[in-house]
Amino acid sequence: MKNASTLNEVADSSGAKSLPAKARAVIIGGGISGCSVAYHLTKLGWTDVILLERKQLTCGTTWHAAGLLSEL
């Protein structure tokens, strides 16, 4: 993603790391779905998109969910 950064790269003038106070979209989870949503929103021209992940992107257990969708 163009212009993407991690919290390790985001610091204020004092050097303290913090998240922005607001964003157009906040995506929780950096698995395949979260990364896909963030990618497609930015491709559509959205700015101020934040992707929150507990550890490293795509390091979790997405394979447990397998993205299963079904009709109700």
What is the overall shape? flat
Task: Average the pLDDT over all residues and give the rounded result.
Answer: 75
Unreliable sequence segments: none
Gap between N and C termini, in Å? Answer: 34 Å
Oligomer: single chain
Give the H and E element order: EHEH
Number of strands: 2
Q: Radius of gyration, rounded?
A: 14 Å
Overall structural class, as computed from helix and strand content, comes to alpha+beta
How many individual helices? 2
Beta strand % = 5-15%
Largest sheet: 2 strands, parallel
Helix content: 10-25%
Strand order of the largest sheet: 1-2
Structure description:
The protein has 72 residues and is α+β, with helices and mostly antiparallel strands. The chain has a domain at 1-6 and 23-57. It contains two helices and two strands. It is flat and about 45 Å long. The chain starts with 24 loop residues before the first strand and ends in a 7-residue tail after the last helix. The model has no long low-confidence stretch (mean pLDDT 75).
What's the structural blueprint in terms of helices and strands?
Elements: E1 25-28, H1 32-43, E2 49-52, H2 62-65
Parallel strand pairs: 1-2
Question: What key attributes describe this structure?
Answer:
two-stranded parallel sheet; alpha+beta; 72 residues; 22% helix; 2 helices
Short structural summary:
The chain is α+β, with helices and mostly antiparallel strands and 72 residues long. It has helices at residues 32-43, 62-65; strands at 25-28, 49-52.
